[in-house]
Amino acid sequence: MKAPIHRRGLVYLAAAGPGLIAAAAGNDAGGVVTYSSAGSDFIYRTLFLMVLITIAYVVVQEMVARLAVYTGKGLAALIREEFPLRMTAFAVTAFAIANIGLMVTEFGGIATAFDLFGVSRYLSVPIAALAIWSLVLFGSYRYAERVFLLLTLVFVAYPIAAVLGHPNWHHVASNTLWPHFIANKSFLLLAVALIGTTITPYIQLYEAGAVVDKGVKPEDYRFQRVDAIVGAVLAAFVAMSIIVATGATIGGSGPLTSAAHAAHALRPVAGPAAEVLFGLGLLGASALAAAVVPLSTSYAVAEAVGVERSVSSSFRQAPLFLGLFTAQILLGAAVVLVPGNLITLILNTQVLEGVITPMTLVLILVLANRRSLLGPAANGPWARWLGGVSILSVAAVASVFVVLTVLGWFGLN
């Protein structure tokens, strides 16, 4: 006998969190710049590509949630147990190094957002770092999750900004439902960037760790599945809203180099309200990611070595987990406060992300296919086929980016 609809809704709300938070964190400062650049450079032409990316995104997020619920373990722990130790060490090390670069990007996003409101980064960044650190160290998982979920509400700013931009909705629909790709290198590299900023390893590692931390049981998996899928779809909708907003206002003006450029560019057409909305969205996205990125690293490393890992633990109970989190917060905030150009660091981080993303996604697919691990919950023929096509396509495109980047180092492209 099925439970009443209102009771099932309450159970879903209780399970909601990890998938929604993880997916929303993907629309971070780097994501805002990438999506804005897609709109300013190619107007609406990348919208159909975003539909394809969303399908792959949903497939990956659902498999990660299923793995975490049915095994009670995070991704790093599963990789350690199911694959050779050297592979685990390489994956976790590369992942941790890449996330350090991402932390600089997130605090840079916080600084940029406050700069739009006239607040110096030397004031905003230390306060934000202290607030994020305190939230995790002195709060339980339930409390931290509620704050993270609250931060996701700022993403409503982007759909509103898209409407204020007065786009040509016929062109938006046409480009969303039918491919309008351009056969040149710039479009290809942007396509890879869109994949990399939407489906990035820290999102999957955080989601798995958070599901385990929350203690979701197999009998409640169907609600966690909805959380993962809805989170991925909503995050993709927000990303497409950013593309539409910038495409409508500054489409065809070339790629952007900063989120601040995108926010200022919206002002002439959409007015000061759009700039404020853009700034609020950037602030919430960066703050959320500034908490999720270091937590995903801490989950991965702690799981890989088999020690305590929980937001609800004290520093004495989980010194490695919380110590790594603290170190990443301090390092990310400190680098942003040092005068200088961070573009080189960010680009190198993206290359490293391009290397580890295909590997992480393939490992997820292999784990989700294993009946020895998941039993009846393992991928069936249809899920195995869809997951394989989605993940291998992402891996192939991401690999092209890495190859082109390496060739560029030697002046060969």
Number of β-strand runs: 0
Output the CATH class name. Answer: Mainly Alpha
CATH architectural label: Up-down Bundle
In the CATH hierarchy, the third-tier topology is known as Amino acid/polyamine transporter I
User: Mind telling me the CATH superfamily name?
Assistant: Amino acid/polyamine transporter I
Helix-strand category = mainly alpha
Rounded mean pLDDT score: 80
- Proportion of β residues? under 5%
- Tally of distinct domains: 1
Which H/E pattern describes the elements?
Answer: HHHHHHHHHHHHHHHHHHH
Amino-to-carboxy terminus distance: 63 Å
* Proportion of residues in helical segments: over 70%
* Main beta-sheet annotation: none
Please give a handful of descriptors for the protein shown.
413 residues, mainly alpha, Amino acid/polyamine transporter I, 19 helices, globular
Task: Please tell me about this protein's structure.
The chain has 413 residues and is mainly alpha-helical. The chain has a single domain (5-409), classed as Amino acid/polyamine transporter I, CATH 1.20.1740.10. Helices cover 79% and strands 0% of the residues. The chain contains 19 helices and no strands. The protein has helices spanning 5-15, 18-25, 29-42, 47-71, 75-82, 85-116, 121-138, 141-152, 157-164, 169-177, 185-198, 201-214, 221-250, 259-270, 272-305, 319-337, 343-369, 371-374, 381-409. The longest helix is centred in the C-terminal third of the chain and has 34 residues, at 272-305. The chain is globular. The N and C termini lie far apart (63 Å). The relative contact order is 0.21. The model is unreliable at 9-13 (pLDDT under 50).
